[in-house]
């Protein structure tokens, strides 16, 4: 957007509801990713703290747990945000109801009048 407030090209102003939905989705992505990463770290590195292991084994488990947790965190955030982006893309938005009245539902062919049984 330039200083005049007009949009150019693909840039469009988002409504407050759209901005709120994006904010909520980002928060959900981060929280669910942190939870999944913490579980993965605990599953991999937990034995290092639960049992008396040698220093190198303990170090290997903790480092492995941290790597698994970091990768899982990134994958979870990306997958949630991509799924949200696809769900809200303009190409998947159905037409308003007043434009669909009288049209068959997607994937169905119109049927003739029903016959009594």
Helix content: 55-70%
The sequence of SSEs as H and E is HHH
What is the molecular shape? Answer: elongated
Uncertain ranges: none
For the sheet with most strands, the description reads: none
Q: Rg, please?
A: 25 Å
Kindly name the structural category. mainly alpha
Distance between the termini: 62 Å
What does this protein structure show overall?
- Residues 88-117 are annotated as: Disordered.
- It comes from Streptomyces macrolidinus.
- Keywords: Membrane, Transmembrane, Transmembrane helix.
- The chain is mainly α.
- It has a domain at 16-90.
- It is 62% helix and 0% strand.
- Helix 1 (16-50) packs antiparallel against helix 2 (55-87).
- The chain is elongated and about 75 Å long.
- It starts with 15 loop residues before the first helix and ends in a 17-residue tail after the last helix.
- The model has no long low-confidence stretch (mean pLDDT 81).
Short description:
With 117 residues, this protein is mainly alpha-helical.
């Amino acid at each position: 957007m330039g200083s005049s407030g007009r949009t150019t090209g693909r840039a469009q102003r988002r409504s407050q509801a759209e901005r709120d939905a994006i904010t909520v989705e980002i928060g959900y992505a981060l929280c669910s990713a942190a939870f999944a990463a913490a579980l993965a770290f605990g599953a991999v590195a937990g034995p290092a703290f639960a049992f008396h292991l040698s220093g190198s084994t303990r170090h290997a488990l903790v480092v492995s747990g941290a790597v698994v947790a970091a990768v899982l965190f990134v994958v979870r955030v990306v997958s949630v945000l991509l799924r949200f982006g696809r769900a809200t893309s303009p190409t998947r938005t159905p037409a308003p109801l007043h434009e669909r009245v009288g049209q068959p539902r997607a994937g169905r062919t119109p049927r003739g009048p029903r016959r009594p049984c």
